[in-house]
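Protocol step 4 of 6: structure prediction from sequence.
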Amino acid sequence: MTPADTVQAAGCVLWRSAPEHPATLELCLVHRPKYDDWSHPKGKLKPGEDWLAAALREVAEETGYAARPGVELPTVRYLANGRPKEVRYWAAAATTGAFAPSDEVDRILWLAPAAARARLTQPRDRTLVDALLAALPPGTTPCP
């Protein structure tokens, strides 16, 4: 396989301050009925699309939320249907918006980091929770 065969995708580990406890945070996970899995919002790049632009577009499409991007998180690489896939992620703070179910994503959950880590279907997605926690803005405290 050549690098041109690699599926390129981008997403975000979307977070917000917990409504009841603004000094703590929650992470947004999406449920995709096609795969019956829980993951971070992500999706394939469109031709000519910038990685970060794709990540923010996918967050908006899948969660209904606009996001303010932060630091880039580790890139995740794996095989998907026999093809190499590369997904670049960013930490992103949710700003405005509201979720509306679709065929692609039927539910979202806002969870404390430990609960999000436990709910994620793929172990490779759990490392992104740790990377986000290490990159949090000063003064932000994760929920237990």
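Step 5 (inspection) to follow. Residues 3-135 form a domain with the Nucleoside Triphosphate Pyrophosphohydrolase fold (CATH 3.90.79.10).
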